[in-house]
Amino acid sequence: QRKLDTVDTGRVRYAMHELGLALSVSGQLAEAIEVQRKVVAMEAVQNQYESGNRVIAGEPLLASLLAARRIGEASAERERLAALQARLGEQAPRFVLIDAVRHATLLALRGEHAEAQRLTMTVTAKTEEEFAVQRADAWRVAAMNARLQGMPDKAAKYVESMQQQKQKKTVTKRLLSDLSAEAGSVALELGRFDDAERAFTDCRKYYEEAQVKLSARVATCVVGAARVMMRNNQPEPAAKLLQALADDWKLVNANSEWHGETLYWLAQAQAQMGQAREAGDTLVRARNLLVKSNLPLLRQLHSRPLT
After folding, report:
1. CA-to-CA distance for 241 and 221, rounded, in angstroms?
2. How many CA atoms are closer than 13 Å to the CA of 164, on its beta-carbon side?
3. pLDDT in tens, 208-225
4. Is there a contact between 55 and 84 (Cβ–Cβ < 8 Å)?
5. What is the 3-state secondary structure (H, E, C) of 94-134?
6. Distance separating alpha carbons of residues 8 and 21, to the nearest angstrom
7. Helix (H) or strand (E) holding 268
8. Tell me: the pLDDT tens digits for 259-293?
């Protein structure tokens, strides 16, 4: 489009907007964020006055930053959009709930457990059929929030409620993958290994059907699937998955505890393959990243030896 228009027109911005969305949903988050930042900047130059176009330009960037777990940047972008929306006026109820789920996700990933739980419960209380997708996602975030705080029994109760929403026709395969990944992660923490294996088989099937590449976008599914493989004495395919995920974290959020989590399990796979020196080196890298976390689940990994 830029070749046709020669300058940055509204049509160029729209084409870049669509490109950013396609990159993001397929898991190419580093490229998506770069394109989406340009779209946000372009909209601000092209439109003198604030309008819904500014929200439309920023929402995909926020979603990508959140998928990449770039918490500081995502928080800043959410606050910018929330202030903008407040100036523009009333929001449709569905978008209010979408924002609440995103805000709860940010809080959970920052370790602000109580406020994250409060927000998720405000969304799950909306019983109307039109909000089924937001309700399912809120139950997922509630389960993740409890799991990250080292409360798998509480997380399991949220998973039960989440599973009731999975049959809704409006739930996409990408969301089904996320729901299955969380269910599997909770099952792993509780030692329900058969349930975990089924859930991770499902989440991988769903993200592949949705044409999402192995990436940070599906990190919960990938880490869980690899852990099941190691439990089944299959360290080689587990290491392959984890190395690919670690490579993507290096692109999108290299210094994060989430990269550290992936490296920790990669070290476990290397140890299981008898690669003691490589495992030791990887474990040091993992611990250097995990030490930054204030989340109980990840702090446990930081001090946990290889087995």
Report:
1. 10
2. 11
3. 999 999 999 999 999 999
4. yes
5. HHHHHHHHHHHHHHHHHCCHHHHHHHHHHHHCCCCHHHHHH
6. 19
7. helix 257-272
8. 999 999 999 999 999 999 999 999 999 999 999 99
